[in-house]
Amino acid sequence: MILLFEHPDCLHRLVQELDTALPAIDEPITHSKVMDLPYLNAVLYESLRLRTPISTALPRITPPEGAVLCNYFVPGGVNIALYAISTSTSNYDRPKVFDPDRWLVSPELVSEMKKAHMAFSMGPRVCIGKNLAWLKMRMTLASLLRTFTFELVPGQNLQPTLRSVLRPMDSKLLVTASKRAV
Fold this sequence. Notes:
Keywords: Heme, Iron, Metal-binding, Monooxygenase, Oxidoreductase. This protein is an alpha+beta fold. Helix content is 37%, strand content 12%. The protein has one domain: CATH 1.10.630.10. The protein has a two-stranded antiparallel sheet. A hairpin with a 3-residue loop joins strand 4 and strand 5 (166-168).
C-alpha cells in the first residue's frame, strides 16, 4: 500500500483494472476473478521485489564449493541477501524504481526476472505457503481497493528502514478509509 500511495498513478490504474474486472461495487470478489489480472499481479510482484518479506538474509549459506545463481558464481559461505538481489542492476533495469510495468513485458523477459525474484525463497526450501500467500495478497488488495478509498494521514515518514524486515521509518502506516459508493 505504501508503494501505491507513493505512486498514485499506479494506484489509480490498479483501481481501474479492478473496476473493469468487477463492474458491480458489491460483487463478491473471488480468487478466480482476480488471479489473472495482469496489473494486480504486476503490482504484487513489484511490491515483493522492493519490500521483500525477509530483507536481510535467508537462513542458509551457500555450500562450501559455492553456487551459481542467476548465471553468477557465488563463493561458498555467503549469506544470500534478498534486498541486494532484488535491487541489483544485474537483475533489473532501474532496480530501485517502483515500476509494475516491468512485469508486463514479454514472457521471456518476465521469466528471466523471476529467476531473481526470491521473495518466497527458491528451490527445495521455497516457502510452503507461497500459493496461499499469493491468493491472500490478491484477494486482500482487491477487496480493500474495491471497498474503500484511502488517504494518507499527513506527516508520516514512510521511507523504508532496514531492520529484519523493511518497514516505514515510523513503523506504521496511518490512513483514513472511506467506503466507496455502491
